Amino acid sequence: MKVKVRAAGKVQMVDLHGQLTIGGPERLLKDTVQGLLNDGHVQLLINMKGVDRIDSTGLGELVASRFRVQKKEGRVALVIPKGKVYDIFVISKLITIFAIYEEELEAVGSF
Length: 111
Known about the structure:
alpha/beta, five-stranded mixed sheet, 33% strand
């Protein structure tokens, strides 16, 4: 997995590419989110357009990241295009706890 962070005003965008699965990638996401929180950034957009596979460990880390951000009175939104990864969010009912967008511009505007 590769992670890139970029800013769009007050929103920090975390671009994920590869697999968000057990065995290291979930730790990279955790460390990235924690680093942003430590730097005072609490408005996060996780762009998952480049994620081709996610498992329960990856889902768990996204949920844990959401709760860490909320503790700091912040917000997390996700960009997930329709497809396999989106279907997993529907099946797991995680679409009920995350703000999910298909397009980055719309997601940034929601903050």
